Amino acid sequence: MEKGEFKELIELLMKNDLICKKLNEIKLNTRKKLKAYLGVNLKNEYCFVLKLDKKSRFLSKDIDVLYEFLPKEINFRYKKKILILNGPICSKAKEKINDWKIINGAG
Q1: pLDDT tier at 2, thresholds 50, 70, 90
Q2: d(Cα 35, Cα 69) in Å, to the nearest integer?
């Protein structure tokens, strides 16, 4: 990951009151434009951050992508699940993932 890209991610999380004292990128074996990070916030809660670069609308069928990359072996420990999207999100998809914090990463 490039330094500038990581700095932008940290600033975006800070702007949304999410400060991680530890944040590591997970290498994903995929051709999709997404990046995943595991971190620990200041309250010692485990965070899973998924950044999806998609210009089109995020639909209900795209929810499977979220859970496909969520670490299954440590899923129960992760109190915070954060989705960073560059495009709009369908209202039905938003209802289905109400346990995720959704951040608009555009612009």
Answers
A1: low
A2: 10
Other C-beta atoms lying within 10 Å of the C-beta of residue 14: 11
Instruction: Give the type of residue at 25.
Output: E
Per domain, the residue ranges of the chain are: 3-104
Options 3.40.1360.10, 3.30.429.10, 3.90.320.10, 3.40.1350.10; CATH for 3-104 is: 3.40.1350.10
Q: What is the pLDDT of residues 28-54, one digit of tens each?
A: 777 778 888 888 888 888 888 888 887
Q: Strand (E) positions, 13-104?
A: 20-26, 34-41, 46-52, 78-85, 101-104
Give pLDDT, residue 43.
87
